[in-house]
């Protein structure tokens, strides 16, 4: 009887410990400090995050080469070359789009000014005050768009500066990945290896699928804009491709500039055609088809996906909108997946691997 009672008794806890609410508050306070530190170091960490994602995508190139007998250093060089080709392609797209956008604005300055006055008069006819109408119409003000163009040029120059660090990070990360691969287990335990493998493969599938559908969307949108006479369709096609990597709100960002330009050159009917055609193309591909391919790789809830776009943009800048999914998956892989007590949080995040 005494042994049974001892067995059934709850385990003794040494010390009072911290209340659950206190632990939650301490965790949140630590998270605020960590992310504030990331914000202060964003100019260093954002290029490192870009390089890490590119290396993750390019790393599988080495496996078939090593199976064919290539030496490790040569396989690593191939990974670096593929990573550089990816970066060069993206850089070329950004430079071409920025140059054409900046060169286009002076040619349509008169049309832009006329559109500003027309939109202001129309809003005033609806009952808005003249100040409110002028403020709303300023979205297509030539001076505002020229300042946007100057900002785009500055952003391209800033990106070119950060690009040097990305290139250097790629070399070191690819070399480290090769060394860790030769050591066998990278993360130490079988459970950690499973988490790491799932994370890396998920990031690769996510970007491959997004790049594939982004290319399809870009080609269709570009051909549409070219057919209906919207200027510089290649710029808006590149924008559609890039914004395809921004979950949930990428479509809205991608449709606004060509719709505004269509309004300037062709009036409301042409702008409406652009919006409707974009909606059909992007909704069918990005809302109905693409999620079926991405869901297994990502496993994030819609609410968390939208929040991650806003959060990581705030933390590390505009590039955070494109890197938000792998960064959110990384946080979950580091903090939630190794903890068996975090099953509820993993389920709330949309993790299909979470167990009850």
UniProtKB/TrEMBL annotation:
GO terms for biological process: transmembrane transport. GO terms for cellular component: membrane. It is found in: Membrane. It is a multi-pass membrane protein. InterPro entries: AI-2E-like. Keywords: Membrane, Transmembrane, Transmembrane helix. The chain crosses the membrane at residues 21-38, 44-61, 73-102, 144-172, 207-228, 234-256, 268-289, 309-331. It comes from the Bacteria. Pfam families: AI-2E_transport (PF01594). The keyword Membrane applies. Belongs to the autoinducer-2 exporter (AI-2E) (TC 2.A.86) family. PANTHER family: AI-2 TRANSPORT PROTEIN TQSA (PTHR21716:SF64), TRANSMEMBRANE PROTEIN (PTHR21716). This is AI-2E family transporter.
């Amino acid at each position: 009887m005494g042994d049974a009672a001892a067995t059934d008794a709850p385990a003794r806890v040494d010390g009072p410990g911290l209340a659950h609410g206190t632990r939650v508050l301490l965790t949140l306070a630590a998270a605020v400090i960590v992310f504030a530190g990331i914000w202060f170091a964003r100019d260093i960490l954002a290029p490192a995050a870009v390089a890490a994602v590119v290396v993750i995508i390019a790393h599988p190139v080495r496996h078939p080469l090593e199976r064919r007998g290539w030496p490790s250093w040569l396989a690593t060089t191939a990974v670096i070359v593929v990573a550089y080709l990816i970066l060069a392609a993206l850089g070329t797209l950004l430079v071409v789009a920025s140059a054409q956008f900046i060169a286009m604005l002076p040619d349509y300055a008169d049309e832009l000014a006329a559109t500003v006055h027309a939109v202001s008069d129309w809003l005033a006819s609806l009952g808005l005050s003249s100040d409110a109408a002028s403020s709303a119409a300023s979205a297509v003000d030539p001076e505002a768009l020229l300042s946007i163009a100057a900002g785009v040029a500055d952003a391209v120059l800033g990106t070119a500066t950060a690009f040097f660090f990305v290139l250097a990070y790629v070399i070191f990360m690819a070399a480290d990945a090769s060394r860790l691969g030769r050591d066998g287990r990278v993360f130490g335990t079988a459970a950690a290896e499973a988490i790491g493998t799932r994370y890396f493969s998920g990031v690769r599938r996510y970007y491959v699928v997004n790049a594939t559908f982004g290319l399809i969307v870009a080609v269709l949108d570009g051909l549409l804009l070219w057919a209906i006479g919207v200027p510089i369709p290649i710029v808006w096609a590149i924008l559609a491709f890039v914004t395809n990597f921004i979950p949930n709100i990428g479509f809205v960002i991608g449709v606004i500039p060509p719709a505004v330009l269509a309004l300037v050159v062709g009036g409301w009917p042409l702008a409406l055609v652009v919006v409707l055609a974009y909606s059909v193309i992007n909704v069918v591909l990005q809302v109905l088809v693409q999620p079926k391919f991405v869901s297994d790789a990502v496993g994030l809830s819609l609410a968390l996906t939208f929040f991650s776009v806003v959060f990581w943009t705030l933390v590390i800048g505009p590039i955070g909108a494109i890197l938000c999914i792998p960064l959110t998956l990384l946080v979950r892989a580091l903090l939630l997946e190794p903890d068996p007590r975090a099953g509820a949080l993993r389920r709330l995040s949309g993790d299909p691997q979470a167990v009850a």
